[in-house]
Amino acid sequence: MSPAKVTRDAFMRSPPGPRTQGCNEIRQVPANHVKRLIAVELEFFFCSGAFCFVTSLANCANHASDSMNDPVEDPRAHFNKGIELYQQGEHYEAHELWEDLWHHEGDEERFRFLQALIQVTSAVHKAVNNVAPRGALLLIERATDRLDGLPDVFMGIDVVELRAGMARFHGHVQEALEKSHGLQCRLSPSLAPTLVTRAAISNWVQEAEENVVPQGAQEAWFTQGLAAYRSGDFFEAHERWKDLWRHEKEEDRRQFLQALIQVAAAMQKIVNEKKPRPAAHLLERALLRLRAYPSIHENIAVGRLVAGAELARRAVTQMTEDAPIVFPPELIPKIDTDDAPTVAPVH
Predict the structure, then answer these.
(1) Are residues 138 and 86 in the same domain?
(2) pLDDT of residue 315
(3) What is the pTM of this model?
(4) Residue 213's pLDDT band (boundaries 50, 70, 90)?
(5) Could you tell me where the DSSP H helices lie in 157-211?
(6) CA-to-CA distance for 9 and 7, rounded, in angstroms?
(7) Are 154 and 105 in a shared domain?
(8) Where residue 293 sits, what CATH number does that domain have?
(9) Do residue 34 and residue 81 come from a single domain?
(10) What's the structural domain count of the chain?
């Protein structure tokens, strides 16, 4: 199997066995490709609850090196291959190829456009496969915002038609959710926004230097994620912190951000999606990371967060999807700054 074709489906089709089975196959993939794939999988894991696959992939990645991959040699061919895959209904594969480009893109407009396409593919995946389809609505809205200010034809793509297709797709998702009282959405892939090519892409060279998020943006994204989490918008918090995690080079901070991402994802799973099993797994993974930090880290009261996450984990592990699930709001772990008042744990 070639590295470009190693996808979630390939791993899910692997024969039954220990969690690490499949590592022999994944070693054929460049180590840095595995790291990027894990970053992509955070988004799909968040909406699908397929934690067995993510656990297997994470275990396999222990064999991967920490170096970052080089920019794509021929970005135009890479981009066009993504379009071809998208038009064939291979949305995950298109998502993966465009991630390769987005990770190293230095031009601000191309960076935004690639991110919009990545979010569209993720939204289509959610709505077609009935995995957190409400998240598809938010992703389409985010992607629409990122297209603002771009010309009518950009990177060879008809942006006007793309925006119109995204609006129609958003409407289809809303209609499906309304008809099912918010319970399900399984759209036909034929309803996905269409990518219409109008011109050839001009010269495109990517520099070896990676995108670096400005310090002011880092603080803003972190604060926005914190505000979203505290307001109960766990998906938004997950998205804000994930943007930071993808760009962060310092391993210590990556681990801390990943712990916060996992807490937010766990709350999305149990509070909004009523899925205790993946929520429990996410909380366990978050606790493993959080316990490595002092009681106050980056102005966050880690000690209180650990205590709250442990209480939530205990409550979630006693729940099953066979019975109605109501997660008490007071058990949502608090992510406080070190100067916030102490909240007594609820027993």
Answers:
(1) yes
(2) 95
(3) 0.48
(4) low
(5) 159-179
(6) 5
(7) yes
(8) 1.20.58
(9) no
(10) 3
